[in-house]
Amino acid sequence: MAKTFEEQISELEGIVSELEKGEVGLDKSLELFEQGIKLTKSCQKVLDTAERKVKVLLSDANGEMAEEDFENE
Length: 73
What we know:
This protein has 73 residues and is mostly helical. 68% of the residues lie in helices and 0% in strands.
């Protein structure tokens, strides 16, 4: 079963935390780094897909995007 985006982010945070401690050996560090890169790429794909969906939902009848500043809300 595929992990959710949130599960992948949580796992990635755990990997970063473990690597930051500096208590694992080189081989384990490389293994964790590789796993982290895979998770990062997977999460980025999910975010890219979500961004495309939002753009479709926010486009007007002419297909034009109307940009809004969220800070003003």
